[in-house]
Amino acid sequence: MENKIRIAVDAVGGDHAPAEVVKGAVEAVKRYPDIQVILVGPGELIEEELKKYEYPEEQMVLQPASEIISTEEAPVAAIRDKQDSSIVVASKMVKEKKADAFVSAGSTGAVLTAGTLIVGRVKGVERPPLATPIPTEKGMSLLLDCGANVDAKPSQLVQFAQMGSLYMENVMGVKNPGVAILNIGVEEEKGNALTKATYPLLKECRNIRFVGNIEAREIPAGGADIVLCEAFAGNIVLKLYEGVSRTLLSVVKKGLLTSLRSKLGALMIKPALKETLKSFDSSEYGGAPLLGLNGLVVKTHGSAKAKEITNTILQSRTFVLKGTNEKIKECFAGIERVRSTK
Amino acid sequence: MENKIRIAVDAVGGDHAPAEVVKGAVEAVKRYPDIQVILVGPGELIEEELKKYEYPEEQMVLQPASEIISTEEAPVAAIRDKQDSSIVVASKMVKEKKADAFVSAGSTGAVLTAGTLIVGRVKGVERPPLATPIPTEKGMSLLLDCGANVDAKPSQLVQFAQMGSLYMENVMGVKNPGVAILNIGVEEEKGNALTKATYPLLKECRNIRFVGNIEAREIPAGGADIVLCEAFAGNIVLKLYEGVSRTLLSVVKKGLLTSLRSKLGALMIKPALKETLKSFDSSEYGGAPLLGLNGLVVKTHGSAKAKEITNTILQSRTFVLKGTNEKIKECFAGIERVRSTK
Whole-angstrom distance between the N-terminal and C-terminal Cα of chain B? Predict the structure, then answer.
C-alpha cells in the first residue's frame, strides 16, 4: 500500500457531486489496484454514497473537509476564508506530499488559485498554464493556456509549449507532438505583438517540435497536437468550441422534428450518430491539468459525470507513473542552469 | 438613371468568378429597378457570361479592368503594382463618386488595403473595422473587428461599436441593437488590459446600447446583436466558427454512413435538415462591410455563389438608401466637435 499512487478527489465539486464523483472513483480503484483514491469532503455525505458500492477498501480513503466552495464565490477570498474546504484541504495534501494528485470538478477559479497559491510552482516556471484537452476529428489536441491569467509574455508561452509537449508525450502517449501558435495566418510575420515575438523563440527552442502557426479553422480538424496561446484567446477557443457544437446540434435536432418523415429518419440514425459523436466528446480525454506545480492538480468539467471522473483519475495515474512532473522539473532546472552560467 | 444606386462588382474575384458573380448581379438588377451594377473586369470575359441572361440593360454597365489580383499576392504590393486590376479600378470609382459601393469576393487583404488606401477613411475614424455577419440560433450577429489590423486600442473599439450599431440598425433592421464586449467572463473586472480599459468607455458612450461582456459560448446562441473585439480575437472567432461547424457536420455525415439503417435514416432526414441548416448559413446575410470609409466596400466569402453576391448587392443598396455613411460621418463629426471644444 505504501507505493500506491494517491489521488485526492474533491467529493463535493461539480454539478453531479457527490454521487457521480464517488461512482467514478469506485470505478477507477476497481480498474487499477495500484491507485488509492482519497475522497475529500464531508464524511457523512461521502459514506452515504460509498455504501452503494463494493470496492477494494484499502484503495479508498476518506479525508474529512467540512466546507464547500461554490462556483459563485470569489476564488482568492474563498481559498483564504474556507480553510476546511475540500479544495484547500486536498491542495494542502498535495503540497505536503500526502497526495500525488488532486482532481476536482469544482470552481475553476478556486482550483486554479489553490493550485498556484497552496501547491506552488516548480522552480523556474513563471506561470502554470491550464492545459485543456479538446476533441478533434483525429482524436484530441491540447489547448493551452486556458487559465485565468491573460496577457502572457512570449517567454511564458515558450514554457507552456515545453510543459505541454511533456504532457502530451508522457500522459496522452503522443510521440514527438507538434506545437503550433494559434494565429490569424500561417506566415511567420502574421499576428499580434505576442505571436510575432513568440515565433522566433519557439524556432530556437530545441526541446519541442515547433510546426509554425495554426489558424483557428484548422483546430477542429486536428491541425496540431498542441495549440499554443495566451489565456484570453484560449478561453475564447474553448468556449466557442462548446457554443458552436451545442447550437449546431440543437439546430440539427430541431430540423429532425419538422416532419413525420424526418422524425422517423431521426430514430433510424440515432444509434450510429451517438457512437460517432462520442469521438467528438471531450469527456473521453479526462480533465485539464494545471501544469508546472509541485504536484498535479487537474480540473474536470463542472458537468462531469462518473466516466469523466474515472478517466481523469486514470490520467493522473499515468502522469505520476511516467514521472511527468520530474521531467518538467528537469526541463526548467536545465534552463536555470543555462541561464546562470551565462 | 441618374439617381440609380451604383454598385461596382468585382467580376473576377472569388472561387466561382466570373460565372456566379455575373449570375448574382443579374438577379439583383432584375429584383430592384433602382440599382445599377457596374461589372468590373476583363471585358470579353464578362460579356461572355452576360450573354447567358436577359436583364434590363440600362441597369448593367461594364467597366473594363485587365488585371486580376490573386489571393496569394501580398496585398500592398498588388494594389500598388496592378493599377488596372478590378479591385483598384473599382475602389477608385468609389473614391471618385462614380460608384456608391464596391462588392468583391476576391482577396480579403487586397480589398481591405484598397478600401483603406484608395477609398480612404471618414474624417475622425481611427481605423475602419471589417464587420462580419455570423449566423446564430436567433438569426445573425455582427462580429467586429475581423480585419487585418490587430491590437486595437480602446478608443478604436468604441468607434467600432458606434459604426456597428449604425450598420445593424440601418442595414440589418435591428432596432436599438445591443453591443457586448467579447470577454472571458461577464463581470466588469474580468478580461485583458484591452477589455478592462474599453468597458468603462462603453458604459459612458451615449449613442450605443452597451449590454456588458459576452463569453464566446453565448455567441452562437445569439447572445448579443453586436460582438465587439479586436481583430485577432475576431479572426479566431470567425475561423473557429467555420472550423467547428465543418468538422461537426463531417463527423455527423460519417456517422450516418456507418450502417444500412443509418443510411436509410439519412435519406429521410435530408430535406428537413437542409432547410434547417440554411438558417445557420452565413451566406444568407450577405458580405462583410468595411465600415468608416468614404463610400462602401463589402467583402463576401471567396466561396460565394450567385445567391450571396445578390444578397450582398441588395445589402449595399440598403446601406446607401438609408444614408448609413452619412450617419457615420455625422457621428464622428459630432465627436470631433466635442473634442475640439474641450
Answer: 46
**Cβ A263 vs Cβ A280: under 8 Å:** no
Q: What's the sign of the alpha-carbon dihedral A289, A319, A1, A93?
A: negative
A303 touches chain B (CB under 8 A): no
Cell of B249: 457536420
Could A258 and B272 be called an inter-chain contact, meaning their C-beta atoms sit closer than 8 Å?
Answer: yes
How distant is the Cα of A213 from the closest Cα of chain B, in angstroms? 13
Asked whether B124 and B117 are in contact (CB, 8 A), the reply is no
SS3 state at A168: helix
Q: Is A259 on the interface with B (CB under 8 A)?
A: yes
A277 Rama class: left (phi>0) / alpha (psi -120 to 50) / beta: alpha
Strands A60-64 and B209-215: unpaired
Chain centroid to CA A221: how far? Answer: 20
A138-187 pLDDT tens trace:
889 999 999 888 999 999 999 999 999 999 999 999 999 999 999 999 99
- Angle at the Cα of B163 from the Cα atoms of B157 and B167, rounded to 5 degrees: 140
**In a 3-state reduction of DSSP, which class is residue A171?**
coil
Q: Is the link from the previous residue into A64 a cis peptide, with omega within 30 of 0?
A: no
Of residues A149 and A33, more confidently modeled: A33
Residue A182 in contact with residue A227, Cβ under 8 Å?
A: yes
* Chain-chain contact of B216 with A243 (C-beta, under 8 angstroms): yes
DSSP string, A87-156: HHHHHHHHHTTS-SEEEE-S-HHHHHHHIIIII-BPTT-SSPPB-EEEEETTEEEEEE--SS--S--HHH
Rounded distance, CA A219 to CA A8, Å?
Answer: 33
Q: What is the ipTM of this complex?
A: 0.89
Q: Note whether B269 contacts A: Cβ–Cβ < 8 A.
A: yes
Query: Is B303 in CB contact (< 8 Å) with chain A?
Result: no
What are the backbone dihedrals phi and psi of residue B41, each rounded to the nearest 5 degrees, phi first? 160, -170
Smallest CA-to-CA distance from B292 within B237, B340, B330, B235 is with B330
Q: Is the pLDDT of residue A340 over 60?
A: no
Contact A29, A55 (CB under 8 A): yes
